[in-house]
Write a structure and sequence with these properties.
mainly beta; seven-stranded mixed beta sheet; four-stranded antiparallel beta sheet; globular
C-alpha cells in the first residue's frame, strides 16, 4: 500500500487548508484511515480517524475545526482544516493500519505552517 499526502502550505491564522491522501496498491488490506501530525520537538499525535463506513473521530484541539472525509471511489482521504491556528503548525501524515499484518502504512508527510 502506498499513501501520497498533499495539500500542505503556508496560511495565515484563521485560514483554511485541505489535505489529501491518495492510497493505492493492495488496498483490500486497509479500512480505517487517519491523520497524524508532528510539530518540531514534539511527539507525533493523532488528529482524526475515519472508518471504511465513514464514522469519524477527532482528537484534541482540532475538534470543531477539522473535518476528515473520504472518497472511496477516488481512493482518497481528506482533512479539511478551518480556523487554523499557529499551534496547528506541523508535518501532517496520513496513516492506514493493515488489517492483515497489524502493521501500518504512512504517507510521506506534508508541511502545514500557520503564521500569526
Amino acid at each position: 500500500v502506498q499513501l501520497q499526502a498533499s495539500g500542505g502550505g503556508l496560511v495565515q491564522a484563521g485560514g483554511s487548508l485541505r489535505l489529501s491522501c491518495a492510497y493505492s496498491g493492495s488496498i483490500f488490506s486497509i479500512n480505517d484511515m487517519g491523520w497524524y501530525r508532528q510539530a518540531p520537538g514534539k511527539q507525533r499525535e493523532l488528529v482524526a480517524t475515519i472508518t471504511g463506513g465513514g464514522r469519524t473521530n477527532y482528537f484534541g484541539s482540532v475538534k470543531g475545526r477539522f473535518t476528515i472525509s473520504r472518497d472511496n471511489a477516488k481512493n482518497t482521504v481528506y482533512l479539511q482544516m478551518n480556523n487554523l491556528k499557529p499551534e496547528d503548525t506541523a508535518v501532517y501524515y496520513c496513516n492506514a493500519p493493515d488489517l492483515i499484518t497489524r502493521g501500518a502504512y504512512w504517507g510521506q508527510g506534508t508541511q502545514v505552517t500557520v503564521s500569526s
